[in-house]
Fold this sequence. Notes:
It contains 4 helices and 4 strands; from the N terminus they run ββαββααα. The protein has helices at 19-24, 53-58, 62-65, 69-76, and strands spanning 7-9, 12-14, 33-38, 41-46. 0% of the residues are buried.
Amino acid sequence: MTQVAIRQSGGANIISLPKMILNTLNLHVGSALELTLEDNKIILTPVSQEPSLAELLAGSPKQALKLNEEDQDWLNEPAVGKEI
Length: 84
């Protein structure tokens, strides 16, 4: 377990995260963390910067999600081997 101390910098109270922790979690200055309190414990969880598939699809134009004629033909082709 690593122990850190709360320090004051200007008007803010801050803690420093050890480099080993930052490297292990692939965090850097500017990384977003979610702070929660559970059972009198402070929990910091990295916020994913990469959008989920659902978020990507929600942001895609609906026209881009439609199957073109070639895609539809491919889906309607009968199996030629042991695909099923």
